Structures are given as structure tokens and as C-alpha cells.
Amino acid sequence: KAGVTQTPRYLIKTRGQQVTLSCSPISGHRSVSWYQQTPGQGLQFLFEYFSETQRNKGNFPGRFSGRQFSNSRSEMNVSTLELGDSALYLCASSLGQGTTPGELFFGEGSRLTVL
Amino acid sequence: AQSVTQLGSHVSVSEGALVLLRCNYSSSVPPYLFWYVQYPNQGLQLLLKYTTGATLVKGINGFEAEFKKSETSFHLTKPSAHMSDAAEYFCAVIPSGGYQKVTFGIGTKLQVIP
């Protein structure tokens, strides 16, 4: 069974640009959540989608957005990039319903560097 | 709102020694509790979880954790450290009835000395 796949794995952008990250969940998983990981802040929750609807949202500015498609694949977008957006962005999937919350399966992440 | 505190951002143990990683939580309702492990350049992997029932929870790779409500703690232990245990460990909490909005601790990097 294929795991969670995130693309691209590494990318470099400059300030002011925008970036789109993609996440393909495990087959059958309908919930996809996104986290930002930085050395100073640890793992911070961005948002969670279930059946194409945003179900939870963290405390990030509106520059951070996401969406989920009918096949459960998800994308997140960051516009007007800032230096502080440099981080590892992790996607996690789960069945999302009828199971214990928090049992997440993580991808390897997309490492974004903003210059 | 829930929060998680991991005492010690870096812990070093000798190979074969006891591993003890501390986690305390605050939550307005009884939570679900988790430990995740992250190896270099990889995503997180679930080690173990507490939902309801038995307070001593066993996970993968010989790790276990005990939920102590009176102490609001969920410390992770392993009797004998192995070199392959070197990784970063994250305690996490989600309130009962919550969705997937998991709150993670800052993480503890475990170093195993041969």
C-alpha cells in the first residue's frame, strides 16, 4: 500500500513569489492535514480537509491556503512568500471518520527555502 | 485549549540504558495522547497512542507510555536504548471528540551513545 506522497521534496523560491505544494494521501483516506515544521516553532497545524471541506484551521495568515480534490489529493498554496516561510511542510492523511482522531500517516515533507 | 510540554529538547543516553522522555499536557477535557517519532529527512511515524482504557500503552520498537491523569503526564519509556532509537520524538494531544487538529510538543532529540 503506497504511503503519503508529497511533491516537490525540495524547492527554492524568492521573496514575493508563490508556491504550491501537493499531497497524495493513502488510498481510502479522506482526511488530509498540513503542518509547518521549523526548528524554533516545532510542528504547527495549518489546516485539515475532509471530503473537500476545510474542517479545521490553524493560526496562519491568509497567505496560506489549501484545497482538497474529489480524489482526496490536496494542495496548499503560500502567496507572497516571506523569509520566515522557510520550513518543512508536512502532509498527513487519515481515514478521518469513525477512527481515533490523531492517527496520522505522514509524508516525507516538502522543504521550502525562501531567499 | 490544549497544550503539550516536552521537558528537555535534547536527551542523551548510553546504549542499553533506560530511555525516559517526558511529556505533560494541559487540556480542558480528557484528551487523546500520542507519541510520534521522526527520523532524519523523514516524516513522522506513530509510536503509540492512548485513547481510553488501559493507562499503560505499548507501542512499536519496545516503547511504552503511561497515562497519568493526576499528573497530566504521558511519559515515554524504553528499558534498553538501541542505536537505532536516535531520532526526534514528539508528544501530541487532541481533545476527545476533536477532529484531526493535533497539537504537538516542541520535540525531544534523543542521542544514543555507544
Please give a structural write-up.
The complex is a heterodimer of chains A (115) and B (114). By secondary structure, chain A is mainly beta. In chain A, 0% of the residues lie in helices and 52% in strands. Chain A is built from no helices and eleven strands. Chain A is globular. Chain A starts with a strand and ends with a strand. The mean pLDDT of chain A is 93. Chain B has no helices and eleven strands. By secondary structure, chain B is mostly beta strands. Chain B is globular. In chain B, 0% of the residues lie in helices and 56% in strands. Chains A and B meet through strand 4, strand 5, strand 9 and strand 10 of A and strand 4, strand 5, strand 9 and strand 10 of B.
The stretches of 5 or more residues of chain B where confidence is low (pLDDT under 50) are none
Coarse structural class of chain A = mainly beta
Oligomeric organization of the protein chains: heterodimer
The major beta sheet of chain A can be summarized as: 7 strands, mixed
Count of separate DSSP helical elements of chain A: 0
Cα radius of gyration of chain A in angstroms: 13 Å
Largest interface: A-B, 26 and 24 residues
Order of helices and strands of chain B: EEEEEEEEEEE
Shape of chain A: globular
Mean pLDDT reading of chain A: 93
Taking all Cα atoms into account, the compactness measure Rg of chain B is 13 Å
DSSP strand content of chain B: over 45%
Helix content of chain B: under 10%
- Global structural class of chain B: mainly beta
Q: What's the overall average pLDDT of chain B, rounded?
A: 90
Query: What helical percentage do the residues of chain A reach?
Result: under 10%
Summarize the helix and strand pattern of chain A as letters. EEEEEEEEEEE
Total helices of chain B: the number is 0
* Distance between the first and last residues' Cα of chain A: 37 Å
